[in-house]
Amino acid sequence: MYQYNEIDQTLVNERVAQFRRQTEKYLQGELTDDQFRALRLRNGLYIQTHAPMLRVAIPYGLLSSAQVRKFAHIARTYDKNYCHFTTRQNVQYNWPKLEQVPDILAELATVQMHAIQTSGNCMRNTTSDHLAGVAVDELEDPRPYCEIIRQWTTLHPEFDYLPRKFKIAFSGSLSDRAATQFHDIGVHLVKNDAGETGFRILVGGGLGRTPIIGQVIRPFLERQHLLSYLEAILRIYNLFGRRDNKYKARIKILVKETGLDTFSEMVEAEWQQIKDGMELSDARIEAIKGHFTLPDYDQTAAADETFNQAIQENPAFATWYKHNTVSHKVPGYRAVFLSLKAPEVPPGDMTDAQLDAVADLADRYSFGELRTTHRQNLVFSDVKQADLLALWQHLQTLNLATPNIGTATDIICCPGLDFCSLANAGSIGITKEINDVLDDMDYLHDIGDVKINISGCMNGCAHQSVGHIGILGVDKKGTEWYQLTLGGSSENEAAIGERLGPAVAKTEVTQAVTTILSVYVQQRLEDETFLDMVKRVGIDPFKEQVYATH
Amino acid sequence: MQLIKDKQIVDDNWQDLADDAELAAGDISVSLSRWQTEKAQLLAHEGQLGIRISPADSVADFAADLDKIALVELDFPDFADGRLFSHAWLLRSRYGFQGEIRATGHYMPDQVFYLARVGVNAFKPATAEQLPVQLGYLQDFTVTYQDSVN
Questions:
Q1: Per CATH, is B2-137 categorized as 3.20.20.370?
Q2: For burial by CB atoms within 10 Å, which of A14, A189, A503, A534 has the most?
């Protein structure tokens, strides 16, 4: 993975010093609340319902074991012994003390990490495919380009006070596992007829209050122009994005109101003036690629026979293998998901003890690296099949082996009313209820690929509008109600879910979900997934049953 | 009153002229709209000329006049409006403006490092006490990732 050089380390250290000064000035009354708010947000620090919340950047979701141990140490020393992995591959602490945040950032800097631009109206952490480098359908590893974007976005002097936040996602595979169509900019690595690498650029996608699917602004951008084209888009957005209404300030609204054709012309005109001065050299790209070399794979890994025997003898292991591992470019290796969706645990949360143990396991079984996913799980990307049984046994003792990846209990869930000052309704409680009723693993596996996303307010942090089943908490005269949508997807066949009908009361949400799943089980065609059936029959059959008793 | 210019604390010899104020002797800066309506009279004035712009103004609207002026003032109504950062970058990089670009109004002291990197070379703080403070903040970082125009 990328290793900091002296420039990277100096920059992060100087940022810590700057934020320490800003925090001191604020506590001494020399910065106003408004001023400090802007500064602390750009260092990942929110003020939430109970306490500050600190969001730490995990560039394109890639972590070393040393970084995970540091997360554990921070959870133990500065927080309540846990942390929370987010839908944009980052990690959050819910209970830091304001005056200790500079110390936390200094701790992070010792392991080449930071919280720069993880909130605020600026360019955020670039996210990517959690299977980058190992996916069988990958055209080229996207991480070197993500790192180039990371450096360009970090402390960019011109674009730190944008109309609104700005998020970039990058995919190097045929299957989109990074929700690129719902980002301000989505980048798809593509090859032209000559086999040269370039990028398809999407713009104006987004979730939140106004979910919009991004549109292709450039089908093939030569790779040397990556940064100049991003800069052209950002300059047009910075100059012309709306600043009169925060709910209309994202680039998706500018693109929609301007029209894609006109917007494209504006970007093109800007780009033509800067492209020749900002070319990425092959040497620079190759130098960054040098940080993402392949690990030392065991070429005989596929020859192992113990694995097949274990699968035959141990049905529970076989079930976990089927649901929580995926194939790998190298024969004899698998990518393994660590489920952070055990029943009874808020989705995405991990304790300090789990973090330390996972760091040790990563060292032992996956070359000391791991990844975070946008569905709030972790991935060991390079596990030998001969090691899977032992790894599974370790993960079971850590409560990280629930075989539910991609199933209806692999729920994306925001902190909701329990933690977040923006929320209108609880979300963690609903997740727990759904887990309780879907405790029959055979039934869960029979239902198969169903993605349930639950947000406690229309800001949509849990991406409910692209859930196969989306659940959105709303406030009705002081009580919690929930709006359901069906048929959303953030993958290749991107779609925004359709509203099922009137919101349902909190006590009826879980019943509504189980009814939807029953309708699916009763009316599906052979091998038809939930999403395919919703596409085929529409929402009416579900609607009839869910509202039958009303 | 003093300001920071080219990393030095120096006297400010410019007068900010309101739109309804009489033309005064010496170096004066006026709003972009006054510049556009009174250009002929202003050019006849003895002394240097400056244009004061707000975030919603367009640099392209006065780019042709840059050889006639010595100062562009970026007048921040609010530190969160980042358009002036792009205006400064455009003035230096696209239009090659060599004169003074000055930040005034409600910019934040903590923004001076970024402002300098997009081409602002003068800062007019709200108070004299801020002068050494902002001069110091210009040194917040010794390394950067992007090319800059300062």
A1: no
A2: A534
- Candidate CATH numbers 3.90.320, 2.30.29, 1.10.10, 3.30.70; the one for domain A301-397: 3.30.70
> H or E element: which one contains A127?
strand A127-128
A164 touches B: beta carbon within 8 Å = no
**CB–CB contact A160 B115 (8 Å):** no
Cβ-Cβ contacts under 8 Å, B144 against chain A: 11, 155, 157
* Nearest Cα to Cα of residue A473 among A511, A513, A503: A503
**Predicted TM-score of the model (pTM):** 0.96
Residue of A nearest to B150 (CA): A157
Q: Which long-range contacts (CB under 8 A, 24 or more apart) does B72-75 make?
A: B72/B97, B72/B99, B72/B100, B72/B101, B72/B102, B73/B16, B73/B29, B73/B102, B73/B103, B73/B104, B74/B101, B74/B102, B74/B103, B74/B104, B74/B105, B74/B107, B74/B115, B74/B120, B75/B104, B75/B105
A195 touches chain B (CB under 8 A): no
CB contact under 8 A, A18 and B110: yes
Size of interface A-B (CB pairs under 8 A): 79
Q: Which residues of A touch B113 (CB under 8 A)?
A: 157
Question: Cβ of A171 under 8 Å from any chain B Cβ?
Answer: no
Residue-level pLDDT, tens digit, chain A, 550 residues:
999 999 999 999 999 999 999 999 999 999 999 999 999 999 999 986 667 899 999 999 999 999 999 999 999 999 999 999 999 999 999 889 999 999 999 999 999 999 999 999 999 999 999 999 999 999 999 999 999 999 999 999 999 999 999 999 999 999 999 999 999 999 999 999 999 999 999 999 999 889 999 999 999 999 999 999 999 999 999 999 999 999 999 999 999 999 999 999 999 999 999 999 999 999 999 999 999 999 999 999 999 999 999 999 999 999 999 999 999 999 999 999 999 999 989 999 999 999 999 999 999 999 999 999 999 999 999 999 999 999 999 999 999 999 999 999 999 998 888 878 788 899 999 999 999 999 999 999 999 999 999 999 998 989 999 999 999 999 999 999 999 999 999 999 999 999 999 999 999 999 999 999 999 999 999 999 999 999 999 999 999 999 986 5
* Equal CATH topology for A6-109 and A412-546: no
Q: Does ipTM top 0.95?
A: yes
| Contacts A121 to B, Cβ<8 Å | 80, 82
